[in-house]
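Dear colleague,

Following up on Tuesday's group meeting, I ran the structure prediction for the two-component complex that the binding team flagged. I've pasted the input sequences exactly as they went in, so you can double-check that nothing got truncated or mislabelled along the way. The structure tokens for the whole assembly follow below. Feel free to forward this to whoever is handling the docking comparison.

Inputs:
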Amino acid sequence: MRITVNGKSLDVVAATLDALLRELDYEGAAVATALNQAFVRRGERGKISLKEGDAVEILTPRQGG
Amino acid sequence: MTADICGDPLTLYGFTCASRLLVGTAQYPSPAIMSRAISAAKAEIITVSLRREAGGGRAGERFWALIRELGIRVLPNTAGCVSVKEAVTTAQMAREVFDTPWIKLEVIGEQDSLQPDVFGLVEAATILTREGFAVFPYTTEDLVVAERLLHAGCEVLMPWGSPIGSGRGLNNPYALRSLRAHFPNVPLIVDAGIGAPSHAALAMEMGFDAVLLNTAIAKAGDPVLMASAFACAVEAGRNAYLAGLMEARDMAAPSTPVIGRPFSDLARA
């Protein structure tokens, strides 16, 4: 399945957002997620099915002004 | 007597602190220098952000661990967001990662000046306050916008001094003074554009409650020393405001007593 993750087009096998984080080696990391510009809470990631063309954002803490 | 937390606390959404200098965490030469600069600034609130990271990367993790070690309250931002939807989603994501309802709300409307889109700002602030966020809106000095933001539920306003990263100081002192005068009981933090300690001192002398800056410290030749300079300036400015500044005059007025001046009875050439 081809989806966009953080602006990059990727082929992934994960069927859920939770599985996607494991597939991309984010498991256990302090990240926040959004699917098609809508926030997805940590506890809901396993219930969120991915589909072709979805746009996922995976954000981590960073320096800011 | 200097201002301190006992006699002159700053309270923002129920959080009381002594420091009136909020600093950003970006652009420092190294994480170690950032930590030392934050300490030298005596900051009790620091700004952070959320950004994309490549899969498997752990830069964000390391940064967050460092911030947690500092034990300082964080104010996440929505920097770079150009729409209400982006800003609201980013705020929601920040609340989960940073475990705080505080959000420095930025909705950028123009890329050259990074001027706030005040219409989007009010809309986003309305949504976020309804969702329980404590919104710190990065705004202009516009009085009507300020009123709308307060009506939306904001308890703090953060007018810009000048464009982000410009270091131009207070571009519109008249409007900033008007803002201060119109909202005497609202915590007002001058955010953005502060380039020198004198700018920060001026903002504080004008009665602003605090200043927030990043680049002026982070990009200084010696960020730690500059952070210390800003801490002194903010404290000096605050004390000057509390002490009450003299009225400016158009003409000179001798400070040394005129009565008893020697040779005063002699005719002058």
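The longest strand of chain A covers residues 55-63.

Cheers,
M.
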